[in-house]
Write a structure and sequence with these properties.
6 strands
């Protein structure tokens, strides 16, 4: 089976308030490395001419733009974090740069959300590819890998329109 792999690095800040270690309750940052593995919906042999599933640029353009423009240097907060309300009230322009998550923005949750977002972007582009796996490296010694249906792994099902991770746009909240 042929698959395409793409890696992108980004920096982010977050805080965990629901039972995490005390050090994680203060806003802090990580330099993340996200690797995605794209697989064709319908595997087929190479054609003997172009010999590619799709051009690399077509396969990764929107995804890399999303990572670079929306995730890089963004703050990730739970939708229940009081800091989110503070930003919305006092710094609404900066609040737009906050990735809002259903519960604490852990590496496990973010991996699932990002895989769902990538699939939404690929489907919207009529791409013959879907994300087979996504690995998110939080530190050089800690990473999370997710495969399969990420929507089954996410907390509390929600209407698709209310989930930025299911919309094929640049939204993060």
């Amino acid at each position: 089976m042929l698959e395409l792999l793409f890696t992108r690095r980004f920096s982010m800040g977050h805080r965990l308030i629901s039972g995490a270690a005390e050090a994680c309750a203060l806003p802090h940052g990580h330099n993340e490395l996200v690797t995605v593995r794209l697989r064709p919906l319908r595997p087929r042999p190479l054609d003997g001419a172009a010999n590619m599933l799709v051009p690399f640029e077509r396969a990764k353009a929107r995804w890399h733009r999303f990572v670079d423009e929306r995730l890089d240097h963004a703050l990730q907060l739970s939708e229940t974090d009081p800091l989110l309300d503070w930003f919305r009230a006092h710094e609404p322009a900066r609040a737009e740069r906050i990735v809002v998550t259903p519960g604490d923005p852990t590496t496990e949750l973010l991996a699932c959300l990002l895989m769902a977002k990538l699939d939404a972007l690929l489907e919207d582009d009529d791409s013959p590819l879907r994300c087979a796996a996504l690995q998110l490296e939080e530190t050089p010694t800690n990473a999370v890998s997710v495969t399969g249906s990420t929507l089954e792994l996410l907390p509390t099902p929600r209407p698709p329109a209310s989930c930025w991770w299911r919309r094929a746009d640049m939204s993060i909240a």
